[in-house]
Every structure is written in C-alpha cells, then in structure tokens.
Amino acid sequence: MRETGHPVDVVVGQNIRLIRKARGLTQENLAAGLGVTFQQLQKYEKAANRVSCSMLIRICEQLGAHPMDLLPPVSSTAHALIDLPWYRDAQIVHIAQPRLLPELRRLSRSQLHTLLMAARAFA
C-alpha cells in the first residue's frame, strides 16, 4: 500500500469526503449505498485506493453530484485557486446549496455588500 496517493487521487478523495459531509452522510451510509464496506470508502477518501471510473459514477449518483465536482481542475491556472480560502468556502457553499451562487450573481454590488455585512454581523 502506498503511503501517499497520486495528487489527483488525493483531491478526488478529499472531494468525496467534503460532499459526503455536506450531504450529512456518514461513511457507513455512503458505503452501504455503494455496496462497499465503510473501510473501502475510507480508503477512497484517504487516497489509499484509487476510485475507478465506474465507482466514481456510482459515488456521484449516491451523492447527487457531478463528476466534475470530484475531479481537480485541469488548467494549471485553476490549481492556484484551490489554495485560496474563499475558493474552498465557495466550493462548500456550491455543494451544500447549488442554487445559491447563481442567485447571488443576480444581486447588485451594493446588495452583495449589504448581504456580506449582515453575514459578518450574525457570524
């Protein structure tokens, strides 16, 4: 067994875990839906085992996610975004509430600013 997985496998595993938790599922719940043990799912999440394409699709079906939600960005310029805290926060919001970000785009700059100030006040 490898000590560290390939960077793509690591990102896929992290994203499975992120989306699973955002959906309120335990490893046991998701594993049961996939027909695998929770230990196998744990290995996917830790990138100890690679996720096959067919398993990736099954995981997406169980999570109600798109395969692109699990895969890392292809563009080298997009990789820099992953390290920014706001990007990960936006990804979590998108996964938990997929309709929220498109709705926020419809707001004016001043409406967004007001919303941000309110969020900070109640945080």
Task: Name a few traits of the molecule.
single chain; 123 residues; mainly alpha; 434 Repressor (Amino-terminal Domain); 9 helices; Helix-turn-helix transcriptional regulator; Lambda_DNA-bd_dom_sf; Cro/C1-type_HTH
How does the SSE layout of this entry go?
Elements: H1 7-22, H2 27-34, H3 38-45, H4 53-63, H5 67-70, H6 76-82, H7 85-96, H8 100-104, H9 109-122
Helix pairs in contact: 2-3
How would you describe what is shown here?
The mean pLDDT is 86. 69% of the residues lie in helices and 0% in strands. The longest helix has 16 residues, at 7-22. It has nine helices and no strands. With 123 residues, it is mainly α. The chain has a domain at 7-72: 434 Repressor (Amino-terminal Domain) (Orthogonal Bundle). Helix 2 crosses helix 3 (38-45). 14% of the residues are buried.
Distance between the termini: 43 Å
Decide which structural class fits the backbone: mainly alpha
Main beta sheet:
none
Shape: elongated
| Proportion of residues in extended strands | under 5%
Helical stretch tally: 9
Using DSSP, what is the number of strands? 0
Q: What fraction, in percent, of the residue positions are helical?
A: 55-70%
Order of helices and strands: HHHHHHHHH
CATH class annotation of the domain at 7-72:
Mainly Alpha
Output the CATH homologous superfamily of the domain at 7-72: lambda repressor-like DNA-binding domains
| CATH level-3 fold name of the domain at 7-72 | 434 Repressor (Amino-terminal Domain)
Q: pLDDT average, as an integer?
A: 86
Question: Could you list the spans in which at least 5 consecutive residues all have pLDDT below 50?
Answer: none
Q: What is Rg?
A: 17 Å
